Amino acid sequence: MTRLARTLTKITGVLALSIVGSLVGSSCSTSPHPATVVEIATQLTSQQRTLHKVGANDENVYGWNQLTGTAKVDGATVEVEMLANVNYLKGSGEFFGFVTFTFADGATVGVQMYSGRTTAATDTTNASFSSPLTVINGTGRYVGVTGAGGFRGQRKDALGGVVDSTFHLDLRMPGK
């Protein structure tokens, strides 16, 4: 092998390693912007709902529920509205929906609940809820926000009762 060929082989190898290193490094990065963690705890109360019971002994319940609550984040009021769809068999099952957080300055963050799971007694009491969250977008200071999080809740009463709720959001703002 000539000296020129050996040099070109070395250069090609170094370039290939550099490219692979760059690709691996970029695929491992979760985001160029650090997340702002927001924790919101509130009691959600049902405002309106349409639920249907079907099946033997009305063991299936499906429909929707609008729940609202108020929380404090860093001393400021946050209004929470949840639009939840349920499909329960003997008190437990799946749910999905949307949550809107409206902050004191009027800015909002919209999130989607998906793959939600409810575990409850057959009469729908003593329920626990969990769902991952994906940020849809926002308004005002939250335009362009992305992120993810989770929802957890507990309800002592039957379906339609007060839900003690906690939302964890990892918010990423463009350019920050």
Summarize the structure.
By secondary structure, the protein is mainly beta. The protein has one helix at 3-28; strands at residues 36-54, 60-73, 76-89, 92-103, 108-119, 127-138, 146-155, 163-172. It contains one helix and eight strands, in the order αββββββββ.
Return the CATH architecture of the largest domain: Beta Barrel
Distance between the termini: 52 Å
The count of strands amounts to 8
Largest sheet: 8 strands, antiparallel, barrel
Total helical segments: 1
Helicity, as a percent range: 10-25%
**Structural class by helix and strand composition:** mainly beta
Tell me the count of domains. Answer: 2
Low-confidence stretches: 4-31
Strand arrangement, major sheet: 1-2-3-4-5-6-7-8
**Can you tell me the CATH class of the largest domain?**
Mainly Beta
Folded structure, characterized:
It is a single chain. The protein folds into two domains: 1-30; 36-172, AOC barrel-like. Helix content is 15%, strand content 59%. It has one helix at 3-28, and strands at residues 36-54, 60-73, 76-89, 92-103, 108-119, 127-138, 146-155, 163-172. The protein has an eight-stranded antiparallel beta barrel. Strand 7 and strand 8 (163-172) form a beta hairpin. The longest helix is centred in the N-terminal third of the chain and has 26 residues, at 3-28.
